[in-house]
Design brief:
- This protein has 140 residues and is of the alpha+beta class.
- A hairpin with a 4-residue loop joins strand 2 and strand 3.
- It has a four-stranded mixed β-sheet, with helices on both faces.
- The model has no long low-confidence stretch (mean pLDDT 89).
- The protein contains four helices and four strands.
- It has a single domain, classed as 3-Layer(aba) Sandwich (Endonuclease, Chain A).
Length: 140
């Protein structure tokens, strides 16, 4: 099956996809800051380079895009019809890297939270963020 876009259009579309400062990530960061949490971003010293690091609480947060990290059962994760094998390999590698980082961080004593893009959509965002806050600071 051929691509519906020209090479130039596809290249432009792919260039607009970011791996830092995404809308879901910014939503979580703004919420955490408004709740009094202070954090570091993308700490290269930690396995998996977590999106948000809350050192005071020994907690890291990964904010996963449903497509890029293969969120099973999610309506936002659809395997592309072109270059299917390549995409499945890429997404499978991302999933394996996520698991490896999770195991490494937990063995170092960090609390790890994974938030999916679909859990930050309008209808679920408030509940997801409140749950996150309760898990980070259970006594408050």
């Amino acid at each position: 099956m051929t691509d519906v876009h020209s090479k130039e259009t596809r290249s432009f579309n792919m260039s607009r996809i970011r791996n830092k400062d995404t809308k879901p990530e910014m939503l979580v960061r703004r919420f955490l800051f408004s709740q009094g949490f202070r954090y570091r971003l993308h700490d290269k010293k930690l396995p998996g380079k977590p999106d948000i690091v809350l050192s005071k609480y020994k907690t890291v947060i990964f904010i996963h895009g449903c497509f890029w990290h293969g969120h099973e059962g999610c309506r936002y994760f659809v395997v592309p019809k072109t270059r299917t094998d390549w995409w499945l390999n890429k997404i499978g590698t991302n999933i394996a890297n996520d698991k490896k980082a999770l195991i490494s961080l937990e063995s170092l004593g960090w609390h790890v939270f994974e938030i999916w893009e679909c859990d930050l959509k309008k209808s679920k965002a408030e509940q997801t963020l409140a749950h996150l806050t309760n898990k980070i600071r259970p006594s408050i």
